[in-house]
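Why do we bother with a discrete structure alphabet at all? Because it lets us treat a fold like text: something you can write down, compare, and reason about line by line. To make this less abstract, here is a complete entry for UDP-N-acetylglucosamine--peptide N-acetylglucosaminyltransferase SPINDLY. Read it the way you would read a sentence in a foreign language you are learning: slowly, and without expecting to understand everything at once.
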Amino acid sequence: VEPQNVEAHVGKGICLQVQNLPRPAFESFRKALQLDAQNACALTHCGILYKEEGHLLEAAEAYRKALMADPTYKAASENLAVVLTDLGTSLKLSGHVQEGLAKYYDALKADSRYAPAYYNLGVVYSEMMQYDMALSCYEKAAANRPMYAEAYCNMGVIYKNRGDLDAAISCYERCLAVSPNFEIAKNNMAIALTDLGTKVKIEGDIHQGVACYKKALLYNWHYADAMYNLGVAYGELLKFDMVICIFHRISFNTVVFADLHTSVQSSVW
């Protein structure tokens, strides 16, 4: 490497970094910065090395220096958003919630499209029971990262708790379209569909209720509430052969079995 060639030192540092040789890589970037202290690329890669070693504050400082040298340097702003979000989560987990919130907002100042910052804001606002704010943040997370399954799932939880079952189910559907094996979302979907089944059944559409209970079991076949309500509905429809099938499926749960048996006896007699 030519001793006075900044780009050569930067290039060597990147090659060493790719080979997972952080110390020699850092030394190459240091030499580049001795020649050009405002080299945004070298500063950014120093930040990446700091981040990989767990030195988040040093990483953030390196990215900020890179942006001071070149405010348009996208790699620095994107990486700064990542580090600030990680710092926010660390602060939140240590009990400093407001400081964590501030870091998430700082992350979005660095990169207004960084979805995990919005997502983590949503988590904090949910924990603070500020659900309108949480929904807004989750929606922005999903808008900037359409494959963000966790954001859709958490939106569904809020809608479900508000009693908006259709909106909750829609969110869970979007979540599972992205991540079909997301067990939490599948369980939440089963709960929401069971509640919807009970709602429409009470409103007089027992067949639609049965359809909802059956659909719930497609997402969680051992969800006892769905089986229980399906058995009750079949009893009300005088489909006792189907009730017996439900008996067999939930016989492991003696409490549910006893309740269902009582309900069926009432229907029969």
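What the structure line is telling us, in plain words: Residues 254-258, 264-269 have pLDDT under 50 and may be disordered. The chain has 15 helices and no strands.
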